[in-house]
Amino acid sequence: MTLMRIVVTGAGGFIGKNLMVRLAELDGFEAIPIEVDTPEATLAEALRDAAAVVHLAGVNRPQDPAEFMTGNRDSIVQVTETLAQAGRAVPIILTSSIRADDDNPYGHSKRAAEEELLAFGERTGNPVHVFRLPNVFGKWCRPNYNSAVATFCHNIARGLPITVNDPGAALSLVYVDDVVAAIVALLSSPPPGSGYREVAPVYETTVGEVAELLHRFRDDRESGLIETVGVGFVRALYATFVAALPVDDFSYPLVAHTDPRGTFTEMLKTRTSGQFSYFTAHPGVTRGGHYHHTKTEKFLILAGEALFRFRHILTGETHEVRTSGAEPVVVETVPGWTHDVTNVGSDTLIAMLWANEIFDRERPDTIAMKV
To answer: How far apart are CA 25 and CA 366, in angstroms?
Structure first.
């Protein structure tokens, strides 16, 4: 297989690290990393063999404002001039900023970089593509540098204070995985012509909302709760927060309630979709012996042998289910049927349990009744 050689400038930066990892995962690509200290001869050699260039290099917070032009405009000029000298007409992707129209040194330098690249494309026929990115967040973003989200994640994960001057300040965000996906899509199926490209989705939020969510993520680890973290912005922000955890917080303890029957432990509680728990039962032990009006549960035996018994509280109809850790079978409790589970094996029974609602001591919806 012929590999598509992609020169990635700024490969050691936030977006660069994520892009390099993704390209290494995909068939058909060979990523060539370029850093600020890469010798010019090495860059020239890489560009001579490149099938495309992704220019991520740039400067955000130099000590001298004059370095904005050096790091942002001049770095792309170095790439275009080297390609022109080699007579190479290859696609070039530039990550710019939505701040490119700002009237300050940073904005001027970003705009100048865009203009240099677009002019180069018109002059030579090289396909050129510009992404004007809003604030990018995700794993490996450097805190206390150019991302409030990264700083918030780092500090809140460590119990450190954060500064929010204006909670209502608008914040437009894109997730780094979406940025990488857009770049890879452009490399894989380049559109005709040149011009500005977009990354989607863009999440519109506020500084205060981000800070509130991150504090909730931290507090939920202590209370056993979790947000709806499977989709959209909350999914991406939660991944970013967890990626900022110190290694000592990769694990956290749970409270196990132990009695002569075995143990019961709540693992995770959601705000809208119930909770997950597990319990054990010693041989011969029966647990349960109650019914619910509305609550439903799903049981999965992980180890041992179990007998589930059911009885309809009005008709007296009965039903039994035998299952074990050797077969993945979900047993569901049904409102209006009293039920119990007995360890009928010789080893400790271990069962996973999901209930569709968090247990409420004031309204437990659990009425004792023998089967």
So the answer is: 50
